Amino acid sequence: xNASAWPSVExxxxxxxxxxxxxxxxxxxxxxxxxxxxxxxxxxxxxxPLGCQIGEETEVQVHGADLEGAAELRFSHPGITAxxxxxxxxxxxxxxxxxxxxxxxxxxxxxxxxxxxSRLFAVGLLxxxxxxxxxxxxxxxxxxxxxxxxxxxxxxxxxxxxxVGAKKGQRxxxxxxxxxxxxxxxxxxxxxSGAGERLARANxxxxxxxxxxxxxxxxxxxxxxxxxxGTEYFFRLENSSGPHVDFISPPIVPSLSESxxxxxxxxxxxxxxxxxxxxDGQALEQLTIKISELSQTAQPGGVVLPPASVVLDxxxxxxxxxxxxxxxxxxxxxxxxxxxxxxxxxDIADRAQGVLAPGLIAxxxxxxxxxxxxxxxxxxxxVYWLDVFSQRLGCSSNPYLTAQLVGVSKDGKESLESSKExxxxxxxxxxxxxxxxxxxxxxxxxxxxxxYCRVMLHDLFNQAKDDPSRGYVLILxxxxxxxxxxxxxxxxxxxxxxxxxxxxxxxxxxKGATLPVQIIVLREGNFNGPITITAEGLPKGVELHHCRxxxxxxxxxxxxxxxxxxxxxIGDVRFVGEVTLGGxxxxxxxxxxxxxxxxxxxxxxxxxxxxxxxxALSVNAEDAEPxxxxxxxxxxFIGLDNGKVKIPLKVKRTGEYNEKISLKIYxxxxxxxxxxxxxxxxxLEASLEIxxxxxxxxxxxxxxxxxxxxxxxxxxxxxxxKKTDKKKDVTYQMFSxxxxxxxxxxxxxxxxxx
Length: 754
What we know:
Blueprint: H1 18-25, E1 43-48, E2 51-53, E3 57-65, E4 72-75, E5 80-86, E6 91-96, E7 103-111, E8 114-115, E9 119-124, E10 127-130, E11 142-143, E12 148-153, E13 160-166, E14 171-177, E15 187-192, E16 198-201, E17 207-211, E18 216-224, E19 234-239, E20 244-249, E21 252-253, E22 260-266, E23 272-277, E24 283-290, E25 295-297, E26 313-318, E27 320-321, E28 324-325, E29 329-333, E30 339-341, E31 353-354, E32 359-364, E33 371-378, E34 383-389, E35 399-408, E36 414-416, E37 420-422, E38 441-446, E39 451-459, E40 471-478, E41 482-489, H2 492-496, E42 507-511, E43 514-524, E44 531-536, E45 542-544, E46 547-549, E47 555-562, E48 569-581, E49 584-589, E50 591-595, E51 609-612, E52 615-624, E53 627-631, E54 637-640, E55 644-653, E56 661-666, E57 677-679, E58 685-691, E59 700-715, E60 727-735, E61 739-744
Parallel strand pairs: 2-9, 10-12, 11-13, 21-29, 30-32, 31-33, 41-50, 42-52, 54-61
Antiparallel strand pairs: 1-3, 3-6, 4-7, 5-6, 7-8, 7-9, 12-19, 13-18, 14-17, 14-19, 15-16, 15-18, 20-22, 22-24, 23-24, 25-26, 26-29, 27-28, 32-40, 33-39, 34-38, 34-40, 35-36, 35-37, 35-39, 41-43, 43-47, 44-46, 44-48, 45-47, 48-49, 48-52, 50-51, 53-55, 55-58, 56-57, 56-59, 59-60, 59-61
């Protein structure tokens, strides 16, 4: 191979059956609020338009469910503000300050039912417009000007048409974005001549690169892959004279300030020919530039990366040309590791490229059927980690690696260990809602003697087509313990394990409520110790109960509780993990995750999730949890391991929730088979009796919650400052605050006197 390369990070990494999408997508309906398993909470499915020009303003409309009492839109950048103009239709006038950088930002809706999940909002320098609703035929094509962007929505079983004028020899760069902006749409974009002849089809990055062969008008046709449509099937179409970055090399660097990278793309300023062609056949330019010369923004930034990318630090960057920013791309950061670029003649074992450990090796699976060989020295008894990064950085690859340790004696005699093969990382502590299983791999090994390790790497998918964007990075490092945390607002469907629905998630508390939050840990460097979790920024009256991830565990369900005296609140909170490593106290802030789309049945459609910038929390003190079950007393409640313990309970019912309640113990595996405690209609007191001897509960201290599915009629809180009589039949799952149980050993009987 002639050059190292890397894929565009806008490539979607999740592929699923066209037939399945057709079956699910064309007839997919949303029944919000009917079988949610939770009380109404604001959920934002879309906002239109989904972008605005820097220094300008636009009216946007929010779509979703349980959006009553519209109050505000909250953006992740303070320079983007919104004023409510129509509460009933949830319309806001959004203003983007002149100093806001070109980027993709998060936005949340705030209403009477809390702060919603996040959506994405694009900000750029191009002139913005909205696609009309009647441009579903060529004759009604909407005009698309130079250096402009149009916001559109897919129509079921229809295409959206646009007309663009060009002079002979003019280069058209047309880019459609959807998945990177949280859209359900899988766009197909075609360029046609004035006579209707198909001239080009968008590549995997949503790009058409075409040079006009004659003066005239050209037509752009856009539709969903299986012709789905609606408010959640939105897109942005750009006609830009600015740069487009197809991929970068290296994609992981030792320093975000000092390192250089090479951009491969189109319309790159002061660039040179690369000698490479993209998968669409177009010649690529290359530009080597210091990272410090690029524009950096905070994630998510509009790139599509799998959840497993959370293990790598980095940032989202853009290149500007003539005041027009490129598409965003991700650059990873791995400090303290020297970088080596793959050489092109290492396709056989006898020409294995020598590299250093620790270190980074950047290469690509190019051309088709490319195989790369490396060798690096190892020292006796030292523990090493070898990580392959490819799919985790947005590349549609499937790396396959074989490795073999070779010991070398003082007289030069070699001894070979058995070779090992690696593919796919199946570990998935995030479950369906935050899937971190991926096609990359990691290998931990300890050298038995001085010598070297040789590896062979290739892409199982790269067998037929030359594509320079298929790339990888090998990270070789000595073992260093650590961990990453991800906080995921938990849906009740995931807790109960009875529903196949995955809901949009938001962290919203009512007065007296207890809310489950999943905390996922990705352990690094063979670290298996306990982790203490704390929450920073919680308002007065909200408590994260004593929270600890035990040794060896990969996830826990934590609980937030709002007291009866809590005040209303909207703000960001930070979850922090604390451990002791090598005698040092180490703190690690958690990422937050977000479900991108509601899923009715996860067996029939994929679950998409992404990282979110912050964990946002809302509290409504004017809305009480309808049913509250608490222990009468602070505890711990003490029992002997050969006996029983009784825990008195208080039941508080607010409004029309007088049905029978079945309380099950949640969070204590020893009592999973214990029958539910039945609390009869209108009963306000109960007693939970636990037979410690029967269930063989060991001596120790335990914390659990009581959970129950509750039916009733939900009374809405005040909407826009006014009381309302609005009610809704609901079925939801309630959790009690934590209950502490202490099991003590029974006294030994006295010995008989002989």
